[in-house]
Amino acid sequence: MHLPFALIALCAHVAVLVRVLIYRRNGARHRHRVSWFAWILVAAAGGASIELLLHAGSVGFFDAATAVLLAMAVCGTRGNVARLLRSE
């Protein structure tokens, strides 16, 4: 029962990882705090992916749902971490 949740969470973490890594600035300013946050996001998504590969049995519905919501947010901003942090 936990394997489908683990696969969903793994795909979501890899999507976050890839989307942030392939982001192109296209003339946007470089902000040090945002780049550090993006680095932390990549490290967390990569670490979570590795942990899921090693311990797939410990993933529940809410872990998978959280990963999918994070992936939706990152893909919705097309990998722009500054837009994730901006408050409107």
Question: How does this structure look, described?
Answer:
Keywords: Membrane, Transmembrane, Transmembrane helix. The chain crosses the membrane at residues 6-22, 34-54, 60-81. InterPro entries: Phage_holin_3_7. This is Phage holin family protein. This protein has 88 residues and is mostly helical. It has one domain. The protein is built from four helices and no strands. The protein has helices spanning 2-21, 32-54, 61-76, 81-85. Helix 1 runs antiparallel to helix 2 and helix 1 runs parallel beside helix 3. It is elongated. The N and C termini lie far apart (40 Å). The model has no long low-confidence stretch (mean pLDDT 89).
- Count of the domains: 1
Number of helices: 4
Mean pLDDT across the residues is 89
Largest sheet: none
Key phrases:
88 residues; mainly alpha; 4 helices; elongated
What's the short story on this structure?
With 88 residues, the protein is mostly helical.
Q: Topology, pairings included?
A:
Layout: H1 2-21, H2 32-54, H3 61-76, H4 81-85
